[in-house]
Design a protein that fits this description.
With 532 residues, the chain is an alpha+beta fold. Among the domains are: 69 residues, Helicase, Ruva Protein, domain 3 (Orthogonal Bundle); 160 residues, Phosphatidylinositol Transfer Protein Sec14p (3-Layer(aba) Sandwich); 100 residues, GOLD domain (Jelly Rolls). Helix content is 46%, strand content 18%. The strands form 4 sheets. It has a 5-stranded mixed β-sheet. α2 runs antiparallel to α3, α7 packs across α8 and α10 runs parallel beside α11. The relative contact order is 0.06. The N terminus is likely disordered. It is found in: Cytoplasm; Membrane.
Length: 532
């Protein structure tokens, strides 16, 4: 019995020591009030004396008792707090983490979007100064004057003239052209509408020059060669007038410019899946003539995007490539023509991609990207973003507002929309796991027409719509019966005309174990034809 008692006492002491140690770890420093009490007691002991330090022991004992009471009270409060927090701590953590992640994403996106206009160090600054001087010298020395290639119809008509007459006149023409070129120096050379002469240009000129420097890792001579080759290529292919050409609409579904991102960059969508259709493929890429026309059309599209840039605040484009149903190896012409387009863009449009987002990425593409990765610079790789089908909307929303994203990609933008515009911004709510959320749209005036948009990212929820009259004696009207919304569902657009005051209620039932983000907007057109 004695042994058991001693063991019990020992275990109790160990538990007590462990509790004290845990408490000490939580509160390493004494509170200010306790420090003041110790000082006060020490002063009392010194004044009262005591041969054996009795006064000191008595004073400290009182403080120990008070501190023990305070500690017990704190431990009680802590225990009670922990009990309350245990029930909701996980949810609160998830909310905090999600908020922090969202803020980090937004900050990172803003930082990345403006990186192309920032000179990071003295080496880059020195390279820009040297490059400016070299370009200035080249323009004033007429090194960039290039004679454009004659157009095809002009060449054909000249070929019809007598060969002997041409031979006689060639010598005189060449001499006169040389005299004209020597006598006049054109220093008003522009690239994408921006003057290239640094002494007459401004910030926009530096932005353009920095594009060539970055494309060649700030190696001035290589950047200069790239600029000179680009100017020559543009002159030979009449690129300055390409926007005036009518290339038809046969290729419009393969790529298009649509809206801007959160930072104002134009957005270009590339849809490779349409080329998998045999009819479309034959119509666009089956012949060499059509392939050449497609390349020309694709260059015109990028020029349309560049035409929207000011080269001060915004100087690049956001590219989105949809890999859904991408043509397989059997359609080799697709690969060849896209390789040609990419090569032309890399050689003559440096640093015009602020970000390249690949969406609906199949598993095999990740393996392809991994093989390609060692051959890419870190700067290029940092611009790539990949999104699986289930993450398309969530990924695009990091960069683009929902009002600017087409409904086919989980946004709210519809073609020829007469009800909403991109200025009609959406609101957002979070639907917690295993819970139901409602969105209420007030309709206080009878005879109003209420129109709304709603999309839940990754849907997988049950959804229904009701009209609830203000009069409790009236019946609730089921506007849209409940149905299961799959992962591939687009945004919902609906409208309702009320015969009495009330409200539209949108009900989202999330039975899954993950939270959902819902985006919505609405308009109310009352009987007097005014919009709310």
């Amino acid at each position: 019995m004695e042994s058991k008692s001693e063991n019990s006492s020992f275990e109790k002491n160990v538990q007590t020591d462990a509790a004290v140690t845990a408490h000490d770890q939580k509160e390493e420093l004494p509170s200010k009030a306790n420090e003041e009490k110790v000082i006060e007691a020490d002063q009392k002991v010194k004044s009262s004396g005591g041969e054996n330090g009795e006064g000191k022991i008595e004073g400290l004992s009182k403080i120990d008792m008070e501190m023990k009471v305070n500690d017990e009270a704190k431990e009680g409060d802590l225990k009670e707090t922990n009990e309350v927090m245990n029930t909701s701590d996980q949810e609160r953590k998830e909310d905090i983490v999600k908020k922090i992640d969202h803020e980090i994403d937004v900050c990172e996106v803003k930082k990345e979007m403006h990186e192309d206009q920032v000179i990071k160090n003295e080496t880059e600054k020195k390279a820009l100064i040297e490059f400016r001087s070299k370009v200035e010298e080249a323009i004033n020395g007429s090194q960039f004057i290039i004679k454009a290639k004659p157009k095809e119809n002009e060449a054909n008509s000249s070929a019809m003239e007598g060969s002997e007459k041409q031979k006689e006149e060639n010598g005189q023409e060449e001499k006169s052209e040389q005299k004209e070129n020597v006598g006049s120096i054109n220093n008003d050379i522009r690239l994408w509408g921006v003057p290239l002469l640094p002494s007459k240009g401004g910030n926009a000129t530096d932005v353009v020059l920095l594009k060539f420097l970055r494309a060649r890792e700030f190696k001035v001579f290589e950047a200069f060669d790239m600029l000179r080759n680009t100017l020559k290529w543009r002159s030979e292919n009449n690129m300055d007038s390409i926007l005036d050409e009518d290339l038809g609409k046969d290729f419009d579904s393969t790529a298009f410019m649509n809206g801007t991102d959160r930072q104002g960059h134009p957005v270009c969508y590339n849809v490779f899946g349409v080329l998998a259709d045999d009819t479309m493929y034959t119509k666009t890429l089956a012949t060499e003539e059509n392939r050449d026309k497609f390349v020309r059309w694709r260059l015109q599209l990028i020029e349309k995007g560049i035409d929207k840039l000011d080269f001060i605040g915004v100087s690049s484009i956001l590219q989105i490539s949809d890999l859904k149903n991408t043509p397989g190896p059997s359609k080799k012409e697709v690969r060849l023509v896209m390789k040609q387009v990419i090569s032309l863009l890399q050689d003559n449009y440096p640093e015009f991609v602020v970000k390249h987002i690949f969406i609906n990425v199949p598993f095999w593409y990740y393996a392809f990207a991994a093989l390609l990765s060692p051959f890419l610079t870190q700067r290029t790789k940092s611009k790539f973003v990949y999104a699986r089908p289930a993450k398309v909307s969530e990924t695009l929303l990091k960069y683009i507002d929902a009002e600017e994203i087409p409904i086919s990609y989980g946004g709210l933008l519809r073609d020829n929309d007469s009800d909403f515009s991109v200025e009609d911004h959406a609101e957002e709510i979070v639907v917690k796991a295993s819970s139901t959320e409602t969105i209420e749209i007030p309709a206080p005036e009878a005879g109003s027409v209420i129109t709304w948009d709603l999309v839940v990212l990754g849907w997988e929820v049950n959804y229904k719509e009701e009209f609830v009259p203000s009069n409790v004696k009236s019946y609730t009207i089921l506007v849209q019966k409940e149905r299961k919304m799959g992962i591939q569902e687009g945004s919902v657009r609906n409208s309702f005309k009320n015969n009495e005051p009330g409200k539209i209620v949108l009900i989202i039932d999330n039975a899954s174990k993950t939270k959902k983000r819902a985006l919505y907007r609405y308009k109310i057109k009352n009987s007097s034809s005014s919009l709310i």
